[in-house]
Design brief:
Blueprint: E1 3-11, E2 24-26, H1 29-32, E3 38-45, H2 58-68, E4 78-81, E5 87-90, E6 96-103, H3 107-112, H4 120-126, E7 141-147, E8 153-160, H5 166-182, E9 229-235, H6 237-246, H7 256-271, E10 279-287, E11 305-313, H8 314-319, H9 322-333, H10 338-348, E12 370-374, E13 392-395, E14 403-408, E15 416-422, H11 424-439
Parallel strand pairs: 6-7, 10-12, 12-14
Antiparallel strand pairs: 1-6, 2-5, 3-8, 3-13, 4-5, 7-8, 9-15, 10-11, 14-15
Helix pairs in contact: 2-5, 6-7, 7-9, 7-11
């Protein structure tokens, strides 16, 4: 599929009654320990029937983006550094990049060629990249609106992770869409810009073991990317219910999240052929917003996510009932209260000055491990620009092997997509086991 760039421009914040401030935004330790890159996502929209005028008009999108950047003005700035080399956001008002493009294919053609499973090719076609030119260095928000021959449209978004985590990025895109659809007066509330609410204590008081941020054997900056393939594995509500009902002993209830994570962990151990006494670590991304006291302000623009983990023997993950493995997942998240988060922020104060190799995606994660990120409960389908909600929303590409996303379906029917990146030699077997073990009975055996 060929994509032709039609226009590329910088959109600056603009409001007749407002001038955006020119200052520096201090970044918290949680901002500095995420991937130092843009997060690429795609929103797919089908043309309404009957047709409507002005479908994804570039002028409408440009004007709405300019207005959205007024309250979210740090995203119109540039990533810089202070005198000591610590990253910070310079609120310069230089703007966000907006690209319009045209594809020589239909959405159906794209689906037939592999659909929207994350891949480097998908990102290169549909999402702007900072690698595409020196003039993009430091830009925090980039978008590409691609029109397809069938009339459908894809909005590719790339928001720098240092500037915003997933929920904060969604708040911005959804605000942009609300302004395009309904006008600025009905858009979302203004974001909370002050990140000092997550400043480390003085002196630091580390009371917990934060091994997820320790340097591991074979760690440090990665020298080579481990090859992997990606796939989207859909689960219907019926399959989810069957998994939860057939995976335990007794009447113990297991949440959808914990059941699916336990199932994925088990399938990965088997597909990778791990030995029974191999240690396997499960990373989970957690959100601090509601865990700290007081909770972070609504609309917090920054990173409030952090990693938690559980470690087990592969033989136990495979042989235990699903609810027991789900209990291990619960153990990883049960202690994550205000004191734990404050302890973590204090712990990170000691490593942010030398964080290379500790940020997500900057080390080679061993084939024994998984990292699961859930988008359940996030407003990923709320970006209605005035012509309907997206038919699909997801990552454009994944960063490394062993990364898994849990993404709800767009129709509210209880469906869940499991998006997984794994070594090519293991992914095919993983996909087979994924569905076999949902309907299978009894305790599975370790792969020989």
């Amino acid at each position: 599929m060929a994509v032709e760039i039609l226009e590329s421009c910088m959109v600056k914040p603009s409001d007749a009654a407002t001038t955006t401030p020119l200052h520096v935004v201090w970044l918290s330790n949680l901002d500095l320990l995420v991937a130092r890159s843009h997060t690429p996502t795609v929103y797919v929209y089908r043309r309404p029937s009957p047709d409507v005028p002005g479908f994804f008009s570039p002028d409408v999108l440009k004007a709405a983006l300019s207005k959205a950047l007024v309250p979210f003005y740090p995203l119109a700035g540039r990533l810089g550094q202070d005198g000591a080399g610590r990253p910070e956001i310079h609120c310069t008002g230089e703007g966000a990049l907006l690209v319009t493009a045209r594809a020589d294919a239909t959405l159906q053609d794209l689906a037939a060629a592999g659909g929207f499973a994350p891949s480097d090719e998908l990102r290169q076609m549909l999402v702007p990249s900072a690698a595409d030119g020196e003039d993009r260095a430091g830009i925090l928000a980039m978008f590409q609106v691609t029109s397809f021959k069938c009339g459908g449209v894809c909005v590719g978004a790339a928001i720098h992770h240092t500037a915003a985590d997933g929920l904060a990025a969604l708040d911005f895109v959804n605000t942009w869409a609300a302004i395009a659809s309904k006008g600025v007066d009905e858009a979302a509330p203004r974001p909370w810009l002050d990140r000092t609410v997550l400043r480390a204590r003085s002196p630091p008081d580390v009371r917990f073991d934060h091994s997820e941020y320790a340097r591991r054997r074979g760690g440090g900056p990665k020298t080579a990317r481990v090859p992997f393939d990606s796939a989207i594995l859909p689960m219907s509500k019926t399959q989810l219910d069957a998994l939860k009902a057939g995976g335990g002993q007794g009447n113990k209830k297991v949440s959808t999240f914990k059941a699916v994570v336990a199932h994925v962990w088990r399938c990965a151990c088997m597909a990778r052929g791990l030995a029974e006494d191999d240690d396997t670590r499960l990373y989970i991304t957690a959100d601090a917003r509601s865990r700290v006291r007081p909770p972070l302000p609504a609309g917090y623009l920054g990173n409030a996510i952090f990693r938690a983990s559980a470690v087990a023997k592969a033989g136990d993950v495979v042989s235990e009932p699903l609810d027991a493995v789900a209990g291990r997942v619960s153990g990883a998240t049960a202690r994550l209260d205000d004191e734990y988060v404050r302890s973590l922020v204090d712990c990170l104060e000691q490593v942010v000055s030398d964080a290379a190799g500790l940020r997500k995606g900057e080390w080679v994660m061993p084939e024994t491990d998984l990292w699961v990120i859930s988008w359940q409960g996030l407003p990923i389908y709320d970006a209605d620009f005035g012509w309907g909600r997206p038919a699909f929303m997801g990552r454009a590409c994944l960063q490394f092997s062993g990364l898994v996303y849990l993404v709800p379906g767009p129709d509210g029917d209880g469906r869940l997509d499991v998006v997984v990146a794994m070594e090519p030699k293991s992914l095919a077997r993983f996909k087979e086991l994924f569905y076999e073990l949902i309907k299978g009975a009894g305790v599975p055996c370790m792969a020989e």
